[in-house]
Amino acid sequence: MGLNQDAVLQDLEQRTHEQLDFLSQKLEPLDAEVLNRKPGEKSWSVLECLEHLNILGAIYIEGFRQKTDDGTPRQGSEYKTGWLGQYAARTIRPKEDGSLSYKMKALPFMTASASELDKESVLGTQREQLEAFLTTLEAAKKVDLGKNRVATSLGSWLKFKLGDAMRFYLNHQERHYVQMERTLAQVGGANF
Question: Do 97 and 178 touch, CB atoms closer than 8 A?
Fold first, then answer.
């Protein structure tokens, strides 16, 4: 399927700003105790969700930087998605009503190592990564989203086209932002 590069980048930029707004307006005003509260024994707290995103963000953001700095220059207005990257980006994104196509279990290296996390550190890292992602989106306007490939969090043996990887990354973020909203509602920390 062919997608317009500018439209994809603009959509990703807008949704990244929405996530930054969520951080500043809904999470930063809350106490660390609320953000560390779990709705159930096997559920993640808000800070554990964010730490999971920070772990994966460290992998993806670096891959995006490398490809936007040194990648194949842009050759047109559209890019052809890869079938696997398109499928992964589409299925990981929550539906309009917030429901998920399927549940997935995170691999152990992708989860928080402590159950009590430092609010300032975790929120600060997430903000830095989202701002770095905005920078890579700007740089991505000059490279071909279909000709450059980025390794996934599963390793260099599985790569997505840059545009698909960026969509997967932000859709995965969105999935967990929906989870954080639900968690806050369950633990009594909802301020929205």
Answer: no
